[in-house]
Amino acid sequence: MDHRKYMTILKLDDAAIASRRAFFSISDDDLARLASLRPLAEKVTDAIVEGFYALLLGHPETRKFFSDEATIRRVKRTQREYFMGLFSGRCDLAYVEDRLRVGAMHERIGLAPTWYLGAYRQYLQLIRDHFDAEIKDPAQSREAFFSVQRIVFFDVALAIDTYIAANLEALGRHQAAIRELSTPVIRVHDRVLLLPLIGAVDSHRAQQIMESVLTHVVEAQARCIIIDIAGVPVVDTRVADHLLKTAAAVRLLGAEVVLTGITAQVARTMVQLGLDVSSMHTVSRLSDGIELALGMVGKSITNKGS
Amino acid sequence: MSVHGPIPILRIGSTLLVSIQLELRDAVADAFQADVLSAIEKRGTTGLVVDISGLDMVDTYVARILAETGRMAKLMGTSTVLVGMRPEVAATLVRMGYGMEGVRTALDLDAGLALLGHVIAQRK
Amino acid sequence: MIQVGATHQIPIENADDIIRVRRRVRDIAEVKKFDSFATAAITTATSELARNALVHGGKGIACIEEVTDGYRLGIRIVFEDHGPGIDDIPRVLAGGYTTARSMGLGLSGSKRLVDDFELESTPGAGTKVTVTKWKRF
């Protein structure tokens, strides 16, 4: 994702940025102070960038992100620009766009928040050390450091939001794919559908199952849907409730549900819990369920040559 | 056949067919019920098919009108079936906990007429 | 942190207003590309709650807000009336308040159709119901 898309997803307009700026206590004085520190920043930028990457390259977990010389050179150059950007004296739309460019690049490399939080800490320490050395008046040095700290944290927030936004987008795509794969509704015969349920059924999945079942029943104009639960590891009150709701909805459409794969254990549980499953036909073996369902559409399975 | 509300009522033999293609504002829903009952009263009908495939939303008010109409029709000797319910409507009703008990449903007109034929034959 | 985008205020003073409010909610859901199940859910909940405000509250107002939590898009609706209010909220929400059964059904039903549900009521002063439906990824 490029940085412009992040601007849209994170809804970063002038108002939102002003609000963030206020929350991170970045005053006009801070911005003016940062601008006035530019000459000092120019002086120490190389040392700070080197120190920053010494940490990243010295740690096995983070070194792998900077595998080749070309990447390292490019990233150091960007980092130099980033560092100088802290002293631009601006904290507006243009500033944020710049920052997002860096975030987008880190996200593309796949650098996780843990690592760049650790890196930012290193950054702040290096800045503190160099400022202390260069600014003689301790009070001034302290003020300078706090101004930098405020804007660095503003940047960290942006970086984390970018990381989350990128991951949520990927998550959304994966979830859509999982939804498709986890309820494979099969057409067994004209107007007879089969849904083999595999794996645990939580309320989130149950909702998705109901929606998928109903959509398929109407699309296929099915008279009956067989739901096989042999592959569902635990069938407790909650799961049974989900199945019953789905069956009720299928019946509302005018079709029927045949529940198959009911083991002795599940049968025992259902009766002991006092569950009313009269809204569904229930059998133990899938083959029996298929025969029952076919019967509903006037078909039967017979031996050949008879 | 005189109809006062905007929903037309058709007759196929001794079956009435009503297809709801508009949003059911209260006045229209009430007129629908009145017109259907009036039509049943005028000629001998044995079956009523209500096609709700045009409804993308059925709240408790509409569900109540439909169920009530079915019960009123039954008192006058007419069996009712609802056809064409949309998946999202079924899901919403079930999630709300609104069962629509006592209402016969079928997937489409063909299934609805077949079901009615079966029900009416059994009544005799 | 919920950020509010566009807002739409619609008075609920007669039966036709119920349609007006739910049409607006449906339109917003469609523009934001909610799936058909989510659209039906929020539209139906809107219809129930608008009807409650009218029938039990005398008249009311619906305030529809397009919201976001920074990551997801959502629709939030506040239904407010200055009617008699509800004195036994838990009982009504459980659907067991027989004299106002239709209100209870509408309230408890709507609660199951939305993601976030808040109910404030002061007997004699009025009722305020806030519901939010988020768009699934």
Regarding CATH, which class of chain C?
A: Alpha Beta
CATH superfamily name of the largest domain in chain A?
Globins
- Tell me, rounded to a whole number, the average pLDDT of chain A: 87
The main sheet of chain A orders its strands as: 1-2-3-4-5
The CATH topology of the largest domain in chain A turns out to be: Globin-like
* CATH architecture classification name of chain C: 2-Layer Sandwich
Number of H/I helices of chain A: 13
Helix and strand sequence of chain A:
HHHHHHHHHEEHEHEHEH
Protein structure class of chain C: alpha+beta
Question: What is the string of helix and strand elements of chain C?
Answer: EHHEEHHEE
Q: Ranges of chain C with pLDDT <50 over ≥5 residues? A: 96-100
* Multimeric organization: heterotrimer
Largest sheet of chain A: 5 strands, mixed
CATH third-tier fold name of chain C: Heat Shock Protein 90
- The geometry of chain C reads as globular
User: Reading side by side through the largest sheet of chain C, how are the strands ordered?
Assistant: 1-2-3-5-4
CATH architecture identity of the largest domain in chain A: Orthogonal Bundle
Largest sheet of chain C: 5 strands, antiparallel
Strand content of chain A is 5-15%
Q: Please give the radius of gyration of chain A in angstroms.
A: 31 Å
Report helical residue fraction of chain C. 40-55%
